[in-house]
Design brief:
The chain has 153 residues and is mainly beta. It has one domain (10-44, 70-150). The protein has two helices and ten strands; from the N terminus they run βαβββββαββββ.
Length: 153
């Protein structure tokens, strides 16, 4: 992918997981875009550093520990008519059929490159704001699988 601005980035989601955890499985799902996104932050795996301090050498050894596939703290202008935002609110409202369920995600870049993963919504909060500001929504997604990156067609 050549350099690009973020203009045109879209994030779609759907309740459930793909039949297979590959491009065919993810692309077969019917995603709903989360509308009015204003920020999609950095995401991806972080590997825990496990240190060992052998007394005999006096040198700290660093080893690979658990992998945390990350999270997304999304920001959006609140739109109570947006189908994707309604999906977020349903998934974070205790007692709804979608509460706590695994969702599949499709991030599409302007070039057509995609990233897929599954995860859960852990917040969908409204922020009425102050004078001269938009009503916004903060959404937290915790990623449960490795991110599958697919090159542009």
């Amino acid at each position: 992918m050549a350099k690009s601005t973020s203009t045109g980035v879209k994030l779609g989601c759907v309740e459930g997981v793909p039949a297979t955890p590959d491009e065919d499985g993810y692309s077969a799902l019917a995603y709903v875009d989360i509308g009015q996104l204003t920020n999609v932050p950095a995401f991806g795996p972080t590997i825990t550093v496990v240190e060992s301090n052998p007394l005999a050498t006096g040198v700290t050894e660093k080893n690979v520990g658990f992998t945390n596939n990350g999270s997304l703290a999304l920001e959006a202008d609140f739109d109570d008519e947006d189908e994707g935002q309604a999906l977020v609110l349903a998934a974070t409202e205790f007692g709804t059929a979608s509460f706590g369920k695994e969702h599949s995600f499709e991030l599409t870049y302007p070039s057509g490159r995609k990233a897929y993963w599954t995860g859960k919504f852990f917040s969908g909060t409204e922020n009425p704001g102050s004078a001269n500001s938009m009503v916004t929504m903060a959404v937290n997604v915790e990623i449960n699988t490795a991110v599958l990156r697919v090159a542009a067609p």
